[in-house]
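Priority: medium. Attachment 1 of 2:
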């Protein structure tokens, strides 16, 4: 009887079929939120225990010693768990069993924006111009050296927090007056198309899902409120820069498991905005657009299986929407299945305690896709402008060209 231990509840239902198929009859999930397992998935053989967001590496080791699993898997999610990968990396380095977690060195670069800026500067990574600041006076000094608009980021923060946009000195003063946790990084705001890519690394090899366009960068700094589309074909120079950046990380920082790069495409080049040491908001698009589920691949890789090749099979769009009780999502005009990602299921949430949801689907016909977007808007479900969704669809069809895209 084999036992798996998973730190984190995110998308756990997509781990279970792989584990059960490989003979893992006991699964212990340490969760940061309370939920009824039977209401979320087939809970046979699954035990849920409490994950403390303030755990140290010693605390994680005590859990490992008590559970003695055949495999342990770090599965952090953004909300409240953004800094735990550092803890998992330190614990994994001291554990004598199989614990699939990023190295602490990689996790620190991914979880600490100041560390990312400093490391990127040393290694020549394509990062925005900026400065590390220890107090408000240093922020003001940095602003005088850099051009507005600026982005200000706290070194360590949870998803959606600790990032601010300033168009002018007056807006920067307002950010400082509201309170800023130091150290912080002040960077020039790079205009361009915000894009992202998810990867899984195991045993020195990596596989990646299609690049996703999240639309033009805006002052709101919230891509979850913009239509997203994949695949997005990078300019040749930008693709080469991304490959070099990913190779440097893989060869020198020991990622082990899933990670995501958020970057901007400006002209024919890229600017790295952040690294996330986890699967997150792009994984539903990855599964829908390729037929290869990142969470299932992660689980199999954690058990030592080789990584598969991933290919885009269709244009895929994700639309920020509103969950309205009593209002049904209009049927996809082509009959394709629409995935509704809501905040109502604790283990499948994209947000917490809101009416927000994401709608993810493939689109085989551009005109049919436009009509569906229009119907969503007419029902009051769409959170982005229909025009922005149309532009993303057109971009996806222009990039896809009717053939499979190799990653």
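Attachment 2 of 2:
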């Amino acid at each position: 009887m084999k036992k798996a231990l998973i730190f984190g509840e995110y998308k756990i239902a997509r781990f279970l079929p792989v584990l059960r198929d490989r003979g893992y009859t006991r699964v212990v999930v340490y969760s940061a939120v309370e939920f009824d397992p039977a209401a979320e998935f087939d809970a046979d053989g699954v035990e849920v225990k409490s994950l403390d967001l303030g755990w140290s590496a010693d605390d994680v080791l005590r859990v490992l010693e008590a559970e003695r699993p055949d495999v342990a898997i770090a599965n952090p999610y953004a909300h409240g768990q953004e800094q735990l990968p550092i803890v998992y990396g330190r614990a994994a380095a001291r554990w004598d069993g199989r614990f699939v977690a990023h190295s602490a060195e990689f996790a620190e670069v991914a979880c600490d924006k100041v560390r990312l800026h400093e490391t990127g500067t040393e290694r020549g990574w394509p990062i925005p111009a900026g400065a590390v600041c220890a107090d408000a006076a240093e922020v003001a000094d940095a602003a005088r050296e850099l051009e507005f608009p600026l982005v200000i980021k706290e070194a360590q923060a949870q998803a959606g927090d600790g990032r601010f946009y300033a168009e002018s000195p007056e807006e920067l003063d307002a950010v400082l007056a509201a309170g800023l946790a130091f150290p912080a990084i002040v960077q020039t705001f790079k205009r361009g198309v915000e894009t992202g890519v998810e990867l899984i690394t195991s045993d020195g090899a990596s596989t990646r899902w299609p690049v996703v366009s999240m639309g033009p960068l805006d002052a709101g700094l919230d891509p979850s409120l913009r239509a997203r589309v994949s695949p997005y074909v990078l300019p040749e120079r930008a693709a080469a820069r991304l490959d070099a950046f990913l190779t440097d990380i893989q060869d020198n920082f020991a990622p082990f498991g899933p990670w995501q790069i958020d970057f901007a495409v400006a002209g024919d080049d890229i600017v790295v905005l952040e690294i996330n040491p986890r699967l997150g908001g792009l994984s539903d698009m990855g599964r829908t657009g390729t037929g290869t589920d990142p969470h299932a691949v992660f689980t199999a890789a954690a058990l030592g299986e080789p990584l598969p090749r991933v290919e885009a099979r269709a244009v895929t769009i994700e639309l920020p929407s509103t969950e309205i009780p009593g209002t049904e999502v209009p049927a996809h005009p082509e009959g394709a299945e629409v995935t509704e990602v809501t905040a109502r299921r604790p283990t499948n949430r994209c947000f917490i305690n809101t009416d927000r949801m994401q709608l993810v689907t493939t689109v085989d016909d551009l005109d049919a896709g436009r009509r569906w977007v229009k119907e969503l808007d007419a029902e009051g479900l769409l959170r982005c402008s229909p025009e922005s969704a149309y532009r993303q669809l057109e971009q996806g069809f222009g990039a896809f060209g009717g053939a499979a895209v190799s990653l």
